[in-house]
Specification:
The complex is a heterodimer of chains A (about 250) and B (about 260). With about 250 residues, chain A is α/β, with parallel strands linked by helices. In chain A, a hairpin with a 4-residue loop joins strand 8 and strand 9. Chain A starts with 9 loop residues before the first strand and ends with a helix. Chain B contains ten helices and no strands. The longest helix of chain B is centred in the C-terminal third of the chain and has 39 residues. Chain B is globular, with a radius of gyration of 22 Å. Chains A and B meet through strand 5 and helix 2 of A and helix 7 and helix 8 of B.
Chain lengths: ~250, ~260
């Protein structure tokens, strides 16, 4: 895989507010900016507007007021989105699910097939290209979902609690895979999660939000080495970092 | 399907049929039930195999098959063609959905004689009756299928800027297929009912006499064995149409849909 083929995207949000039709204020005047190539975790209790914020950044939803700007060289950056569940097309096998974004873009068949195989090998599913989603485990399905998101070589990768439904071991493995993929490609990545440990392990920066209305209560740079392995989880620094995030979560959700 | 599975699927219903027939046979003989009230299964089988009684029944079976088949096909095509634009537009939906209920509630008994007057007696009027009775489940099920597309996948297609055509062919239609097939399954049985009821009511005119005509005549003449034979053929026709839909559904959905799998 070549290194950085597209410049990553920077994001700046100013005074972003979202009020739903039923009057619920999901997000209240958020301001933040994210540098190109950053890996940011967004952490917070249920109902703090994390998912709404992610949808607004993706352009799938509009803020009630304020704006989110994506800053990059091209007008329409490649954005990929990973949902809480894999959301694969059940009538397509793994290979055809993976190539879908390129197919919708109109890429040539041979080209998108070889790209899909390449990316499936990277997520460890090279041998399962012909399998159907119903034949896979939850963790494998999520790997396919990741492969589908990465095949467009996104400049911005948005993940909405993608591993929340998986067991602990599978989740840690996928965290390591994702961190490794980011390390190689350096796309701007925003990862929404409930877990302080996951937020710390993955990201270089964590934003903690409070609920109703969603506001930023902590914007914290994670001071851990760039290369991360599973041993890191047992270290004192790791515990210290999760402690900081946990305190922010606790202090505000009272 | 392997041999074990075929056995598992066919043995229980066949066993039920044999047991019921045996019980009926026993009951009729033991209680000396008059033949004009209830025919023993052995008599019905004789009627179905005897050359003289068999021929008009088989001709009627073929005529009803054509009428019900045409009505069912029309339901499938018209139902799909109506449901697709209705699923795409909320306005069309609210404008037309109330009128599709007409098809569900229409009293065929009242309308079948009119259909015959409008279209002259014959297979066409019977097919239209079959259509009128069987189109509703195709419309509602197809509509439900198209409206229940996974919203996350709709978002995904939006994110990758998929064209309207790609959305339809690569997402909405395949997603709706299981629902469409369950509508077709219901519709298959209804089309047979619609055809036979229309025949019973009006089918005595003309030379395309179907099973409904056989049923009406047998009833009039107290030929209970012929009545039951015709009813049996009617059920067989319904079963055959149902099996046809199932076979197509299985062929298309078996790789990916839980509804097409029978692992348990």
């Amino acid at each position: 895989m070549p290194g950085i083929s597209h410049p990553a995207v920077g994001i700046s949000a100013s005074q972003v507010q979202k009020i739903f039709a039923n009057g619920t204020q999901a997000i209240s005047s958020l301001n933040f900016s994210i540098n190109p190539g950053e890996f940011v975790s967004i952490l917070g209790p249920s109902g703090c507007g994390k998912s709404t914020l992610l949808r607004i950044i993706a352009g799938l939803d509009r803020p009630t007021s304020g704006e989110v700007q994506l800053k990059n060289d091209s007008n329409s950056p490649a954005i990929s989105y990973v949902f809480q569940d894999a959301h694969l097309l059940p009538w397509r096998n793994v290979l055809r699910n993976t190539e879908l974004p390129l197919e919708l873009r109109g890429s040539a068949k041979a080209d998108r097939r070889s790209r899909a195989m390449e990316i499936l090998n990277q997520v460890g599913l090279g041998d399962f290209a012909a399998a159907y989603p119903s034949e896979l485990s939850g963790g494998m399905r999520m790997r396919v979902s990741l492969a589908r998101a990465l095949i467009t070589e996104p400049q911005l990768l948005l993940l909405d609690e993608p591993f929340a439904a998986l067991d602990e071991i599978t989740r840690q493995k996928l965290d390591e895979l994702l961190r490794d993929l980011w390390h190689r490609r350096r796309m701007t990545t925003i990862f929404v999660t409930h877990s302080t440990a996951e937020a710390v392990f993955l990201a270089n920066r964590a934003i903690v939000m409070t609920a109703r209305p969603g506001k930023i209560s902590l914007d914290h740079t994670i001071t851990l080495p760039d290369e991360r392995s599973s041993q890191l989880r047992a270290s004192a620094e790791f515990a210290e970092q999760t402690g900081v995030l946990y305190a922010a979560l606790e202090g505000k959700s009272r | 399907m392997n041999a074990k599975r075929i056995l598992f699927r066919t043995l229980p219903p066949v066993a039920v049929l044999v047991l019921l027939a045996a019980a009926l046979e026993f009951y009729v003989h033991a209680r000396h039930v008059p033949r004009y009230l209830l025919s023993p299964p052995s008599q019905i089988i004789k009627t179905l195999t005897n050359e003289q009684t068999r021929k008009p029944l088989l001709i009627a079976f073929w005529n009803t098959t054509q009428a019900a088949g045409m009505g069912f096909l029309a339901s499938a095509i018209v139902g799909l063609l109506l449901a697709v634009p209705m699923s795409a537009s909320r306005w069309l939906r609210s404008a037309f959905l109330p009128y599709t209920i007409f098809f569900q509630t229409v009293p065929l008994v009242a309308i079948a004689p009119l259909l015959v007057i409008w279209m002259e007696p014959g297979i066409k009027a019977v097919a239209v009756s079959a259509f009128v009775v069987s189109v509703f489940p195709v419309i509602t099920n197809t509509l439900t299928g198209f409206l229940s597309t996974d919203p996350a996948l709709v978002d995904l297609f939006t994110l990758y800027r998929a064209s309207a055509l790609a959305r339809f062919w690569k997402l909405r239609l395949p997603y709706a297929l299981p629902q469409i097939f369950s509508g077709l399954r219901v519709s298959a049985g209804l089309s047979v009912i619609g055809a036979v009821v229309a025949e019973v009511l009006v089918g005595t005119i003309g030379n395309n006499e179907g099973l409904g005509v056989r049923i009406a005549n047998a009833n009039k003449n107290g030929q209970t064995d012929r009545l039951f034979a015709a009813v049996l053929l009617t059920s067989l026709l319904g079963l055959a149409l149902f099996a046809l839909v199932n076979a197509v559904s299985f062929a298309i959905l078996r790789r990916w849909h839980a509804s097409a799998r029978d692992e348990n």
